[in-house]
Amino acid sequence: MRKNVNLHPVRAFSDRRWVLPFFASLLVSVTLFFAAVLGRFSSPYAGDPPSFDFISYARMEDSSEYFVESDLNSSLEPPGDSRMEPPRIAYLISGTKGDAQRMRRTLQAVYHPRNQYILHLDFEAPPRERIELATTIKSDKTFREVENVRVMAKSNLVTYKGPTMIATTLQAVAILLKENADWDWFINLSASDYPLVTQDDLLHVFYNLSRDLNFIEHTEIVGWKLNHRVRPIIIDPGLYLLKKFDVFRTSQRRSLPTSFTLFTGSAWIMLTRSFLEFCILGLDNLPRTLLMYFTNFLSSPESYFHTVICNTQQFRTTAVNHDLHYIAWDTPPKQHPRFLTVKDFNDTVRSGAMFARKFAKDDPVLDKIDQELLGRTEGRFAPGAWCIGSSDGGADPCSLRGDESVFKPGPGAERLQELLQKLLSEDLYKQRCSSQSVEPTNQTVN
Question: Which residue ranges traverse the bilayer (predicted)?
Fold first, then answer.
């Protein structure tokens, strides 16, 4: 029994082996604590007072500076009047099966070394036609040297009434932004579009304009269009099939949105880089929300950018209500505009617009535009001040390039300037993104 009683004091003494590690840990902790305190309140420079990084709660009333959006928003604001150098235009020229030759002609008519160009031949075109288009571009000496023309290798199936046209446009813009191409405005054209002014005319006139103006025809969707376009839910087969079919409607209908106002207008646009960066790179969720909304919206190319810009405070006042196209409609108007012919030439010129549509393939009116408005001969670029080669013996003056920042404007610049002065007048300025805007007719501006 004695043995058993004496075991307890011995075990209690032996359990005190934890004391030494404990005091060692305590000593390290105290040392680190004092080191931290001394480092916190001592300045690396003699005589500097201690610094306390406390946030004043009084400043929290204006707390925007504490959020990442404040800095990013300032970087996305449209630039002011930048005239340090002439502008640059980025073009998307789109076509479908059988349009390769028309696309090349339009490209030659709008070409300028300052600009950027993307060509998209949709999925309906056979691979052979797409390869021929890319080969023609690659074999051109000017395109090869300047390197400002690209052919999209991966084609998309495009349905005009569905969102696939928007997707192709955004893809082209994303390519231009990814490659850090230098441009101020973006213009989308189809193979049935054709210019009415030279690029020297265009660049000269826009040199004197603020770089934050977006040319996009728009009007608020009201009346019968609400039931015809907004409430139906459509499906675009181009999103999941390899063959083009027309969009079809579902049996369901949706209610009108309450968090944004819907706008519509022309699908042909001239938009600023800053606005398109907002649509693709911006932190604001509105462009992505609307992109999902318009996935099942009838004729979404005529509403997506219009609704984004008119529901964004920083851009809504930059929207000029015109698409800079001349387009003629039947009376009463049908679903599509009518083809322009030689009979429409005078009205087309008087409109002052930069482009016109629709033209049939190789229509004689295109030759008339080349000869009388662009000074272009078949198979060549529309000449400008950058073309400094000799034309002796029928040589191409554009085979030798000069200063791309020098322009030689002609009568087209005067017509375009007159149109823009009217569009930027005070009365029309007040109607930008307004519910009281008069719905454009896309006819001649008198």
Answer: none
